[in-house]
């Protein structure tokens, strides 16, 4: 791997500095650094940020490769300045077992444009009834630390409480999509004057507030 | 937002995320029934957008997350009621956020927090501070780029359900460096 | 005028022009030879994805009296991909030479989609899309109101609007495309529009262009003293969940019962877009009274649709 020397970047938009990168790590930060073997990036006028991280990407693979793959999503992420993408579990099959998350994780690694971090489903099949293999996913190679049923919010308070308690044992977090499913059945658009005029059934903003 | 502010004040562990599109698009755009604007949660009013911008600027909202949701033309170009929810947002997330927040007090340090450090802390317990010894994950931004227009030709995603085609931006992502390797320069993916 | 998609995008001037053409069309219908050569050689397609015999035959009669060829296409949309099948169907019809497509669909925005997506070059006339709009119904309602008001005033209806007339729309506003089209058209023509519904059937809306909304019909009648009441059909097929406890309770609160009909000012007209649920939103006493315009609305519907076809297919040039 080639070493990289970034010259005159504005770190977080504040102080100007050079950054030397060796073997994939930041090894030096300072003024007027030099390295004979490094590729030099003139970053004067540019702002250096830590690589962007997206907690909410739908990569569609496995099962939805017609719309996106781990590779095309990784490319889109790289273009957008991202270095880590968290992949939502609503694939087919759903990412509710160690097998699926390991497959997604290794594919991301093989492509090598961003870190692909699978998000595990909270419940089996995202059906909201039984807990998914949270522990097995957490302890797998994919090292899953975020669990979510995303578009199918866990509606059963008991399951949700158990999931929150259980996830603690693995230092994991549960992400809940704010939506009350009963209030949004068939809803098409914001419940506003615009939806009323367009004849689209309204999605009351209270549906997010209640959850 | 008031509920989240209240909870944070009380020390309750709660984090809130917003998407770039909810910071810039409003439900006025639904007039032509173009399903590219159909998202979950739905686009809301311009007053709601102002509230979200304010909450992102003052730190009530911790995270910007894209909800990048690719859909094929077959599921995203017909009747509104039949179309899937979602839009693709990874490629221009940062330019969109900077455009939405241009009149707000939203520093690069805040960008780093909301688009890198907070999500990394929550998702993988990493600091992402640009410290010596860290994995070299670095994004170089041109904050005063010559005005450029996002088009389908620039898209790397397999899908084309972006509401941002034709939109002009003044921020661009010049380089992306992932684990010490350049992965992107000025919109071109580097596959070395 | 290339398309007629909604009354929201009609100007008051254009609407009055269409109403005046409708009047001319209506006058030709009392002649012995009712058929006009205006659209000879044109093909009009009735594309109905939702059952509606009344609207379809009204359009069919209108097109035939203008000498157009009429193709009726009724399709129950496939559940798999209605959007694409709409596109494919429309393109097939255009390939068969359709000059105008009259579309009825259960999805809001369907007519808009057909007209603006570049799929077809034919004129598109919206015959009802989901809970969005039903513009020809509103035009025929406006036409009917204008004729009756002019008659009461001993004037000719041509060229006039509905300035300061008080029209009260009652019932399931939330699910009604007829209400949406009428609110926008009648207010544009200068009428004061009032809506009355149980609060679960009133969409979130600011007051403009609605003059005032009520939840209590008796109070509304006393306060407004309307020149016309338009009773909407209860659209049970579009209702999700519970909007009111029972039809009986709805009738007692929001139906035009014999008692309420008697409480109306003596000049108030009674309208209904049909088909009626007699005994639910409207009583027979009201529906069959002399002040009811319900049959007249049907007859006017053909004339108004002739005018709309004329304006869309021959560019409105006289």
Keywords:
heterotrimer; A: Urease, subunit C, domain 1; TIM Barrel; 6 helices; 12 strands; 26% strand; globular; B: 192 residues; alpha+beta; four-stranded antiparallel β-sheet; two-stranded parallel sheet
Descriptive notes:
The complex is a heterotrimer of chains A (211), B (192) and C (318). By secondary structure, chain A is of the alpha/beta class. Chain A has 3 domains: 4-48, Urease, subunit C, domain 1 (Roll); 52-177, TIM Barrel; 180-211, no CATH class. Chain A has 6 helices and 12 strands. In chain B, 26% of the residues lie in helices and 14% in strands. Chain B contains 5 helices and 8 strands. Chain B has helices spanning 2-9, 20-24, 46-57, 93-100, 108-124; strands at 17-18, 63-64, 138-142, 148-149, 168-169, 172-178, 181-185, 188-189. In chain B, strand 6 (172-178) and strand 7 (181-185) form a beta hairpin. Chain B is globular and about 50 Å long. The model of chain B has no long low-confidence stretch (mean pLDDT 94). Chain C has 2 domains: 12-134 and 298-313, 3-Layer(aba) Sandwich (Rossmann fold); 135-293, 3-Layer(aba) Sandwich (Rossmann fold). Chain C is 40% helix and 14% strand. Chain C is built from 11 helices and 9 strands. Chain C has helices at residues 12-28, 53-65, 82-95, 110-116, 135-153, 177-188, 217-224, 247-254, 258-263, 284-287, 294-313, and strands spanning 43-48, 69-74, 100-105, 123-129, 166-170, 192-196, 212-214, 228-231, 269-271. In chain C, strand 3 (100-105), helix 4 (110-116) and strand 4 form a beta-alpha-beta unit. In chain C, helix 2 packs across helix 11. Classes of the chains: A alpha/beta (211), B alpha+beta (192), C alpha/beta (318). Chains in contact: A-B, A-C, B-C.
Beta-strand percentage of chain C?
Answer: 5-15%
* Low-confidence parts of chain C: 77-81
Q: What is the helix fraction of residues of chain C, given as a range?
A: 40-55%
Radius of gyration of chain C: 19 Å
* Widest sheet, order of strands of chain C: 7-6-5-8-9
How does CATH name the architecture of chain B? Alpha-Beta Barrel
Q: Please give the radius of gyration of chain B in angstroms.
A: 17 Å
The first-to-last residue Cα distance of chain C is 13 Å
Number of contiguous helices of chain B: 5
Arrangement of strands in the largest sheet of chain B: 3-6-7-8
Q: Whole-number average pLDDT of chain B?
A: 94
Q: What is the name of the CATH class of the largest domain in chain C?
A: Alpha Beta
Mean residue pLDDT of chain C: 91
Tally the helices of chain C: what do you get? 11
């Amino acid at each position: 791997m080639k070493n990289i020397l970034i010259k005159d970047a504005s770190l977080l938009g504040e102080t100007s500095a050079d950054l030397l990168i060796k073997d994939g790590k930041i090894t030096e930060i300072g003024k007027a650094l030099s390295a004979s073997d490094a590729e030099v990036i003139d970053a004067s006028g540019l702002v250096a940020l830590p690589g962007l991280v997206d907690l909410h990407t739908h990569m569609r693979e496995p099962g939805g490769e017609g719309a996106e793959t781990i590779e095309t999503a990784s490319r889109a992420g790289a273009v957008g300045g991202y270095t880590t993408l968290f992949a939502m579990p609503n694939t087919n099959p759903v990412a509710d077992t160690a097998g699926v998350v390991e497959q997604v994780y290794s594919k991301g690694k093989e492509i090598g444009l961003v870190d692909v971090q699978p998000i595990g489903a909270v419940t089996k099949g995202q059906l909201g009834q039984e807990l998914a293999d949270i522990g097995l996913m957490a302890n797998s190679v994919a090292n899953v630390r975020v669990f979510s049923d995303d578009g199918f919010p866990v509606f059963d308070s008991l399951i949700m409480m158990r999931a929150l308690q259980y996830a603690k044992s693995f230092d994991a977090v549960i992400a809940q999509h704010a939506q009350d499913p009963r209030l949004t059945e068939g809803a098409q658009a914001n419940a506003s004057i615009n939806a009323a005029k367009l004849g689209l059934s309204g999605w009351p903003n209270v549906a997010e507030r209640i959850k | 937002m008031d509920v989240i502010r209240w909870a944070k004040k009380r020390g309750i562990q709660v984090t809130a995320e917003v998407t770039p599109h909810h910071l810039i698009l409003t439900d006025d755009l639904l007039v032509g029934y173009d399903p590219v604007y159909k998202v979950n949660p739905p686009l809301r009013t311009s007053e709601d957008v102002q509230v979200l911008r304010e909450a992102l600027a003052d730190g009530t909202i911790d995270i910007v997350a894209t909800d990048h949701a690719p859909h094929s033309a077959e599921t995203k170009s017909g009747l509104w009621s039949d179309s899937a929810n979602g839009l693709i947002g990874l490629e221009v997330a940062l330019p969109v956020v900077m455009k939405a927040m241009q009149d707000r007090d939203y520093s690069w340090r805040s960008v780093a927090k909301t688009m890198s450090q907070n999500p990394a802390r929550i998702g993988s317990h990493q600091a992402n501070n640009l410290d010596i010894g860290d994995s070299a994950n670095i994004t170089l931004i041109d904050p005063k780029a010559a005005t450029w227009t996002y088009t389908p030709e620039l898209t790397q995603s397999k899908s084309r359900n972006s509401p941002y085609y034709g939109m002009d931006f003044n921020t661009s992502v010049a380089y992306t460096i992932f684990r010490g390797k350049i992965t992107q320069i000025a919109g071109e993916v580097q596959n070395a | 005028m290339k398309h007629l998609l909604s009354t929201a995008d009609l100007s008051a001037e254009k609407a009055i022009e269409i109403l005046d053409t409708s009047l001319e069309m209506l006058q030709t219908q009392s002649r012995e030879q009712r058929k006009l050569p205006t659209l000879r050689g044109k093909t009009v397609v009735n594309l109905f994805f939702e059952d509606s015999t009344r609207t379809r035959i009204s359009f069919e009669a209108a097109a035939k009296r203008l000498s157009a060829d009429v193709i009726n296409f009724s399709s129950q949309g496939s559940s798999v991909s209605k959007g694409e099948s709409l596109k494919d169907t429309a393109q097939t019809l255009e390939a068969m030479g359709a000059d105008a497509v009259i579309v009825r669909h259960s999805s809001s925005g369907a007519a808009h989609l057909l007209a603006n997506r570049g799929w077809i070059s034919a004129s598109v006339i919206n015959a009802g899309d989901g809970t969005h709009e039903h513009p020809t119904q509103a035009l025929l309602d406006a036409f009917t109101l204008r004729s009756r008001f002019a008659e009461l005033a001993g004037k000719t209806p041509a060229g006039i609007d509905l300035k300061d007339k008080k029209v009260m729309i009652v019932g399931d506003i939330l699910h009604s495309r007829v209400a949406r089209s009428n609110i926008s058209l009648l207010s544009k023509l200068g009428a004061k529009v009032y809506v009355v519904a149980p609060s679960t059937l009133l969409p979130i809306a600011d007051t403009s262009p609605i003059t005032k909304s009520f939840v209590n019909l008796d109070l509304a009648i006393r306060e407004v003293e309307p020149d016309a009441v338009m009773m909407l059909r209860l659209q049970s097929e579009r209702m999700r969940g519970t909007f009111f406890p029972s039809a009986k309770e709805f009738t007692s609160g929001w139906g035009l019962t014999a008692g309420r009909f008697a409480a109306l000012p003596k000049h108030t007209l009674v309208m209904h877009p049909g088909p009626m649920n007699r005994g639910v939103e409207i009583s027979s006493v009201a529906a069959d009274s002399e002040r009811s315009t319900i049959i007249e609305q049907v007859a006017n519907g053909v004339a108004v649709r002739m005018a709309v076809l004329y304006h869309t297919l021959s560019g409105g040039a006289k």
